[in-house]
Amino acid sequence: MKSKDIIKIEGPLLGQSNVCGPILRALPEWFGIEEATVQYIQDVGELPTFLARIERVVVGFMSVKHHYPYAAELYVLGVYPDCHRHGIGRALLASVETYLRRQGVEYLQVKTLSDSHPDEGYAKTRAFYKAVGFRPLEEFKTLWGEANPCLLMVKGIQ
Prior knowledge:
By secondary structure, the chain is an alpha+beta fold. Helix content is 30%, strand content 34%. The protein has helices at 17-25, 34-44, 88-102, 120-131, and strands at residues 7-13, 49-54, 57-68, 71-79, 107-113, 135-140, 150-156. A hairpin with a 2-residue loop joins strand 3 (57-68) and strand 4 (71-79). It is globular, with a radius of gyration of 15 Å.
């Protein structure tokens, strides 16, 4: 990816499992549990999903899950590793937030691996979420099993 490449965001779209699956498969550090990855790929087919394209190539995505009229979740997202740190995640999130605001959503949440687990990849993930305005709310030590403590982060978007 070159710094002058133009990122185009499209969505929300349904039925994007075939497009998003290869991105998740390219991120084994984050999506290394096969059963969970298969479930994410299946769920993307049913959830509003935003795609990031450079030229005609999809390089990243975000899928959103509505929990209540005023609350939604960044359910699953991914960007090809060679496109990390080029503004794709921020561009996707900006489009997602605009979409959710128009629907009256006030709060956006994301679940990620807690900082009580010494994973360097997820330290970068948490740093990204903090940089775009998410704040840690609560740690769930057993939601994903004791080996994978979950951190719930939230952001007001109104």
